[in-house]
Amino acid sequence: MSVFTPSRRWQPAFYPFKKERFGRRFLAKTELFLKGPLFGCRMYGNCLLQETAFICPMECPKGMRNGHCGGITPSKNCYIDESRKCIWYCIYKWSEKMGREEMLLEVLPPLDWEKVGTETWSDVVRQIRKAGTTKFIKDIFSKDKLKKSKTWDSVFKTIRQPDWWQGDSDHHAPGYQRSVSEFEKRLRSGEFVIATEVTPPLSANTEKLSKDIESVKPYVTAINYTDSSYARPRMSSIVCNKVALDHDVEPVLQIAARDTTRIGLQAEIIGVNELGVFNVLCLSGDSARVGPSPRSNMTLLDIDSVQMLWLLRRMRDEGIYLDGRKMKNPPKLFLDAASPPFASDPALQALRDHKKVNAGAHFYRPILSLMFMDLTYGWNNLINGRFSIKYISLLVLLL
């Protein structure tokens, strides 16, 4: 067990994919030797310890970088490995004691596998030199909190927020005015909107799916199709969306981070936009732990739901891919998110929901409900960026 980390144990460190120079290998071994026992460090390339109450977030079995997944047992343990505490619950509690909860709102980037397994100390030294070593030391010990914070961020935020990500803790309103879908249009107008969820078929036959769509069509504005819920494969959500469009019903595409890579996500979104699918629900997805055997990888998500929202929002509003390439025709998207209405800790869930709103979520779906309900006051505050943590906590409880 690590000294400062409340987890049962720390997981094995990552290793680089290429051989580093002796100096960097020596630094990496030294960093692991010191930070491993103390903080459970896994050497993933851009350290976030200052922002996560000095607990390594990569101790999370799912590799969640932006908060918990909602899978917490009543005893606050991880549902994938019940022998250990939920690491994000521990991060939140320690942050609360330290008065640093607001720092958890920053949208953190996915792993850069070019840097995974390498040290970060040389990057810190390089940034300190760039800022001016004397100035850095002087400002860090200054009584001026604003100057101290600005100097600190000039070094550490540059490391944890690379140019290709540029994450922050601010709210980002939609970069467009006209609604991209009928579903969004009705929500914006303040209507009481009902949408339902239809489970995709187990086989390649869409006859029953078509009947289900027709049976609910007169009563709903949109239909959401699960993306292999409970980690059990079914017909893909994309195909179900196409069937819905053929029946003149507006679909909601559900994408689970569990089965999605950052490359696949961007490619899928461009493709479904051409089909006429504009509503996208981003989820972390149920772990393979709850699915049937033989189980797939349970250890790491390439990209989590918060990162999905951030990436898709930037694709839509800035017209860029993750690697910075410009696109002539950005996708039109109405981004949705999900929230468990009976979270084990409403305050912790509210923090993560607030983070999703900042990242780009425009509408919330309670996970355990089969209906979408529009709360006009909540929607207007989402659009205007006035969603406080306390209000989201209330909203989660209400749902």
Description:
This protein has 2 domains: 22-105 and 113-127, no CATH class; 182-398, TIM Barrel. The chain is 38% helix and 8% strand. The chain contains 13 helices and 6 strands. The protein has helices spanning 22-39, 87-98, 121-131, 133-140, 145-160, 182-188, 207-216, 237-246, 262-275, 305-318, 346-359, 376-384, 389-398, and strands at 195-198, 222-225, 250-256, 279-283, 334-339, 363-366. Strands 1-2-3-4-5-6 form a 6-stranded parallel sheet. Helix 8 (237-246) links the parallel strand 2 and strand 3 (250-256). Helix 11 crosses helix 13 (389-398). The longest helix is centred in the first third of the chain and has 18 residues, at 22-39. The chain starts with 21 loop residues before the first helix and ends with a helix.
